[in-house]
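Subject: two folds for Thursday's group meeting

Dear M.,

Sorry for the delay on this. The cluster queue was jammed most of the week, so I only got both jobs back this morning. I'm pasting them in the order they finished. Each block is the input sequence followed by the predicted structure tokens. Could you check whether the formatting survives your parser before we put anything on slides? The first protein is the one we discussed after the seminar.
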Amino acid sequence: MFEGAWLALGHTARGELELACEVGQIAARRLETVHSPRSTALLRQLAVALRRRQRNSYVSGFLPSLEQALAQHGAAQRPPR
């Protein structure tokens, strides 16, 4: 997940948004099984970077699922009250 998140960020920086979304989707799926704060932080960075490009069709199709996965992951990480 860590390498995938970095790769997706790299594709985003280069403007390769289709590839960024494809790789990001693979990395985001791993949130269910990988519990790495560093990797999660990178996926959050990816979401921030992609929000700036929401008009792109690939980004608009992927970003909501990334944000939902991050929200669910965050809720699962919180200790019970």
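Second protein, same layout:
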Amino acid sequence: MRLPRRAHGLTLIELLLFIVVVGIALAAMLRVFTTSTLASADPMIRRQQLAIAESLLREVQLMPFTWCDPTGDANVETATSASGCASLAEASGPEAGQTRYGPTNYFDNVNDYAGFSMAGIRDLSNTAVTGLSGYTASVAVAADTLDAVAAGSGDALKITITVSGPDSSSLVLQGWRTRHAPNSPL
């Protein structure tokens, strides 16, 4: 007489042991995910900082880069150096009374943004952008060496945008603006 074959499958003890092992593994993984989420910066704040920095960098890079003040000098189109300006050579920082916010006497050159900062993000019409009052932004513009262009030539500017978020985190974004021709507005 033959003994009956043992049934294939899991016993109750094997099933319980499997549930305990899987439960311990899932609890450990959940703890790792929770810890890493709590320790990481808020991704929304980081994305907002990056959007602000990119927008401000683009705004600065799109400004004319001329030897003379674009709105105050008759030789702005023909000057090949600062000495070729009729009355007002462009210098680092805004001219007297200039502001980023229009409609009149607004920044008209890349150099005008040197030293600019704002607490609470504002658009070009000086209107506060909703939800961004806890952010600050600052701009630094300085002549620098870029590949074969020497810093002393004044033909390459390094633009550094620093944005701080409401959680005191900071993001720095850098870009360049070069003078393609002596009097190039772009």
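Two things I noticed about the second structure. The first strand starts at residue 117 and ends at 119. Residues 90 and 161 are 21 Å apart (CA to CA).

Cheers,
T.
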